[in-house]
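Moderator note: this is an archived Q&A kept for reference. The question asked for a predicted structure of one protein chain; the sequence and the answer are reproduced below.
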Amino acid sequence: MLLGVDVGGTFTDAVLVTPTGIVTAKAPTTPHDQSLGVMAAIDAVLAQAGATPDAVQVVAHGMTVATNALLEDVHARTAFVATEGFADLIELGRQARPELYRLCVAAPAPIAPPQRRFGVRERQGPRDTELALTPIAAAEVAERVAACAPDAVAVCLLHSWRDPTHERLIGDALRERLGSGVHLALSHEIVGTFREYERAATTEIDAALSPLLGAYLERLLERTAAAGLPDPQIMQSSGGLVDAHTAGRHAALTVLSGPAGGAAAAALIAAATDRPNLLCFDMGGTSCDVCVIEGGRARETAGGKIAGRPVALPMVDIHTVGAGGGSIAWRDAGGALRVGPRSAGADPGPAAYGRGGTEPTVTDAHVVLGRLRAQRPLAGGVRIDEEAAHAAVGRLAQELGLELDVCAAGILRVANAEMVRALRVMTVERGLDPRDFALLAFGGAGPLHAAAIAEELGMDTILIPRTSGVLSALGLAAADREVHRQRSVLLTDDALSDSALDAIATELLDEGRAILGAPHAAPRVAWDLRYRGQSHELTVDVQQPSADALRAAFEDAHEARYGWREAGAQVELVTVRVAAVEPGSGLTLERGARGETVRGPTILHLPETTVTVPAGWHGTGDGSGTLVLERER
């Protein structure tokens, strides 16, 4: 049996894959200690399946501990160590404004304040050592760091991606002085690529969050062991699982742990439905996560921003907006109707949940419009309080001077606009036509909004999986185990040889296999290239590389993205990225007979979600248990 557990903003979902089928359950998320909600969901799904813990072979877990800590600015007391003269590197950043036309908006402050930033008398150049680090200087810095009593230390020295000797010396000195109780993050171990600011910011995040995540995972490991379950495997931002001890030591790997499970599930649906190109949106209680599946795989990126902070690590390319079922509707200072990003969360939740919530949410708007009714409990056993929902939306309607139904419909239109904007960021702004994709809608609230969003984008096909409300948890159970290693190399001309490519990829693969503990793990390689002199790179996927093959793939990608290529120009290999991959369970969705056809307008109540089928749409359940809605032309 395979068990996947996904922590959301409102509910914690559990999926148990048994030899006879799939069993699902939900429990309220417990924000103060997510492991309590995790164990409640596990207990519920095991009880529903009539299974015992010893029958479970794999426990896969996606959580939001690191994400929430970043968003809420909660972290360990962190010190930052850099080359002398560069201690303020993270505060200086890229000198780019967070919002172009709002001059008062500032970037997030560095986690380590000025009094906990330290410079080291050393200097590595891009090729040679310019000022050697002495043991005395290293010990002196360690003493100064110890004086500020940190819980974690981030170290990022210039050009350590090329030569980490000095970082290792500083690391040894800090470990000797501070002991094992203080978490230490060295940039060459975590990131391994150039661009000092992004590398430094990622290392600081890793140092600051790892003590918190490590403590959470220790509690979870204790509870799963006491229950007789295997140690959980943790979902990384890259879409692959890693053991809990590795995740606890490097929290930066998990900042998109929750949403990445949805991307893994989307790839599973793509295979089951023979639709390799999907535009996915996962709408839960707090947010909506959007990603693209091309050729049956989730699109990946070499890094991104979380809570305004750069994270220079491989991750599933996901765009998130604050539009979920629990997103609160409100009137702004100009009198306009707004939705989110603030959410009612799990406690107290939407007014319709009857748990003390009084502010109007997207869920309450659906209740007012009759899409969610008291006669049909929601997943997780939640019963709708129609009177509370009407009262909450009614107060906002009075503020805005609108009729009740008009206000509720307006809430949904505003929420839809936010999600459409996110989907356009991932498609139109990147040269993709959404009409070439099917829309995969999941999460507890996604299928309620799918048709309206598809119509806005000109899309004709919607896929709604049978396990839509817990699909991310199913993706966790099906995910591969993997470890990513990356290194900047900056190779051109004769240095960009076939033998050099093979040597670098082999070395990184060996590192990944050692961390994963899987000596025969399969490689997956990506190459970042650019024309010599360009500032940024394009990533190409060439699994059997040669210098000529890389150049051809890069120029094709460059022309597809920018509309031109430069024949005869030098091509530079910037970074090599290798994933050591151990295949997961090989889970596939069962095949069966097609279901009955439904025609809109109607509302379908599935076990895990509710589906709005407007006029002009019809749908049929396919052999994998996925509802396929198509627009009539």
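Archived answer notes: The chain is about 35% helix and 25% strand.
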